[in-house]
Amino acid sequence: MANSFQNKVLRINLTTGKVSTEPLNESYAKDYIGGRGLGTKMYYEEVGTNVDPLSPDNNMYLVTGPLTGTMAPSAGRYMVITRGPLTGTIACSNSGGYFGSEMKYAGYDVVVIEGKAEKPVYIWINNDKVEIHPADHIWGKEVPDTTDLLKEETDEMAKVACIGPAGENLSKIACIMNEMNRAAGRTGVGAVMGSKNLKGIVVRGTNPVHVPDGERFMAAIEEARKVLAEHPVTGTGLPTYGTQILINILNQSGGLPVHNFRDSGTVEWADKTSGEFMIEHKNLVRNKGCFSCVMRCGRVTKTYKPYAGFGEGPEYEAGWGFGADCDVDDIDAICQANFRCNELGLDAISMPCTIACAMELYENGYLPKEDAGCDLSFGNASILADLVTKTAYREGIGDMLAEGSYRLAEKYGHPELSMSVKKQELPAYEPRTLQGMGLNYATNNRGGCHVRGYMTSPEILGLPVKLDPAVTEGKAGVCKTFQDLTGAVDASGFCLFTTFAIGADIIANVVSAATGIEYSPDELLKAGERIWNLERLFNMACGFTGKDDTLPQRLLQEPQKFGPYKGSVNRLHEMLPEYYELRGWTEAGVPTKDKMVELGLEDAFAQMLGAVEAAAAQNN
Amino acid sequence: MNIKYFAYIRDFTREKETTWNDPADDLQALLQQLSQHYGKKFREAVFNETEDDLNNLIIVLVNGRHVAHLDGIHTKLQASDQVSIFPVVAGG
Lengths: 620, 92
Fold this sequence. Notes:
Chain A has 620 residues and is α+β, with helices and mostly antiparallel strands. In chain A, helix 2 packs parallel to helix 22 (521-541), helix 20 packs across helix 24 (572-583) and helix 21 packs across helix 22 (521-541). In chain B, strand 3 and strand 4 (65-66) form a beta hairpin. In chain B, helix 2 packs antiparallel against helix 3. Chain B is globular and about 30 Å long. Chain B starts with a strand and ends in a 5-residue tail after the last strand. Classes of the chains: A alpha+beta (620), B alpha+beta (92). Chains A and B meet through helix 8, helix 9 and helix 19 of A and strand 4 and strand 5 of B.
């Protein structure tokens, strides 16, 4: 029966040059839906848990969801799954734009990249014709030039995913950029691509995507589209203001981290960096959407002297990172630094957070001026873009910034000043204000991350329920549900932002109509739970334990200085035991056999135990 | 009392903030005062149809705390309070 999978995996080995295809494993697709789940399952089965992230043995999986490339609204996502060099955890980084849908039209659900090319190359996928081409002439170029050149050499209609100099130079905070400004941004996946000498992947596809029952599918997506279009967040707020709309509400709610989380709470000038101000200040040129999106939250922006430029963004996270976290109130400087992240292929969350960490190290006298090479004081807007460039090229202090904040702070003797979990930088929500977001950060399978369990939604925005951010009671259950639902959404091809308006019932209906596999809302959540637990098993097999489910000591011990939650710390200890219990894990955070059998993960569980025992034997 | 407005609420108030003299002593009465001042669109944005509760699509903070976690539309106010009014927004 036709379904929205292309039922084909493309496998490219860069060491041997071999290109092959194989059928999609149907049971994987059923149990893990697609995208993040399917990629994690394939990675786990094919690669295992003990490869160096930057070695040729570390495969990279580009995976679409069953909805990617269909007419489902806001469903153009693809995921990159690999082991991340920043964290050492499973790495899955999600991007929108048009690359995912084009990959689907070329005829593939999954593209697997194995091995390492001897010299720089790019891959040209033109439907069923797949070629590996030299890329020496492109190596070293920034993302816009790379994208233009690759399209000139192949097909102007093609879509390009590539790395910039940051990925080439193996920065652990490098990302993969597609259509120039959309990023598989987090966990350092760009460095994995760079380690393979792979500059870019160009794809052009003209195949259709089928659904089993057109009438049913159209009815399902029309229901979703209508809800998204009529909801004030997805229909009005995000199209008008973009994600930068969040600056003011987080600031007024006391949830804005400031000065590397040292002086968090509320700042008087936050409105000058907000989505509202970007319209007033005429930074916003127009909004822009990803494939099939009804929200169109992307921002095409321009900036003014002395930071004149043109590009896209920033998203809220980058706006906060280069803004409040670095104490910079100049929206033009913030935008320009964000443009440089996109042009050079750097994660626009980890980059500013690493700079903020460097600023605190510098102000405390731990990072000497001769190493800094500039005045690294908080508030120095003039250095931001230059620091981004230095990071991508590993020049001067940039060589250490390229390693991310944890390794930077460790080098200077103060790892406690890295605001990270599992070595990945925390995003823009203060866990001393948002207790539940703190739990999500601590337990996240890819380290400091907000989009795997977005507790800001109930704790600040009141969606879909209003939870008091200061309360810990009941947060464990909501956090688990959000994490599981996100697992399923990331697997489906839907953008996570759809969940501001639509819930598991509509999502399950659309996925069922596309795949012909019937998922009830509970079964959808169960698939998300399976994905979450497989990621957990992977991390534990890699040596992570419950002790890694924590937050920087600052957030657990130093009372917040400003804002309505002045005096508070994150009370993780009040939430974590209940969270483990709800997950069916032991008190130490280890998945139990019974729970893993329930989820069909008994083999992965046995592998995890074997890996843990082998590591213990080696240590003895 | 200092009152701040955000996003498209500013389209109805034509100002980002105001210092409101002689404010009412609870939120419902304050919003009625403000609706008198700013007009119908503001009123529709902040109230439900019967004006006995907040519109579901509005977020009101008093001193940074969502009034849903205080006493809702009946939250008591003092002249020194900071009130912030947002439409429902989201991002990430």
